[in-house]
């Protein structure tokens, strides 16, 4: 498959799902992901008839769909009532994914409040194990994303933003229903950088690579390519030479920004010597 066909667009909350599929097909975008938390796309707004129609539409138009849960929902929650609600939220995504024909669901490890790292990580791991078991039963695939660092003096920090924290989860969960989503720009914020992450992680378990520009060792930003100092060409060359065969996902700016950037990225990859065909 051509590299351009493997670079998708994160629709997020921008369009109704049916409209998102049409937009992707009309723009020759083969991969999209979408969040099902608001408006007409709320996960509880899909009956079987609507889900079946979307599945047929995506297949007919050649669009591969993925879902992306909200990182604000704390997968590391352990409080009564809230804990059960997080389970219900994630099960709803998992139950709906095969009905829509969605091929993956991006999930997160949650966040902690500085003084409670260990119990939060333990709670998140146990929840992810339960959800992976549910995904096995439903025929769904969960992709655990490495999230972004927060300022050092912040009280709240995302989990799985370092190699060590990410490894804590994927070393303990082995299932055909569980893989990884590597956000390369998040790695760019860390001392290890993209190359350090790629050297350390099991690349064969990475199904998706997420992309945006930002500044080295900086803070979380989803900039258009060229607005930061992320080297997209070097990143494509590194991953493609290491044998990455999955899809990429642009996550920045407007739909038009992400669509234009797909073509710009192929040019950057070609210039860096990465295979683009």
Task: Please outline the helices and strands.
Layout: H1 3-6, E1 7-12, H2 17-26, E2 31-34, H3 48-61, E3 64-68, H4 82-100, E4 105-107, E5 111-112, H5 117-138, E6 142-145, E7 157-158, H6 163-170, E8 178-183, H7 184-188, H8 193-200, E9 206-211, H9 232-241, E10 247-250, H10 255-271
Parallel strand pairs: 1-2, 1-10, 2-3, 3-4, 4-6, 6-8, 8-9, 9-10
Antiparallel strand pairs: 5-7
Helix pairs in contact: 2-3, 4-5, 9-10
Keywords summarizing the entry:
IolE/XylAMocC-like; endonuclease; Endonuclease; 277 residues; hydrolase; Xyl_isomerase-like_TIM-brl; alpha/beta; 10 helices; TIM Barrel
Provide a descriptive summary of the structure in words:
The structure is a single chain. The protein is α/β, with parallel strands linked by helices and 277 residues long. The chain has a single domain (3-271), classed as Divalent-metal-dependent TIM barrel enzymes (TIM Barrel, Alpha-Beta Barrel), CATH 3.20.20. 42% of the residues lie in helices and 15% in strands. The protein has ten helices and ten strands. It has an eight-stranded parallel barrel, surrounded by four helices. Strands 5-7 form a two-stranded antiparallel sheet. Helix 9 (232-241) links the parallel strand 9 (206-211) and strand 10. Helix 2 (17-26) packs parallel to helix 3 (48-61), helix 4 packs parallel to helix 5 and helix 9 (232-241) crosses helix 10 (255-271). The chain is globular. It starts with a helix and ends in a 6-residue tail after the last helix.
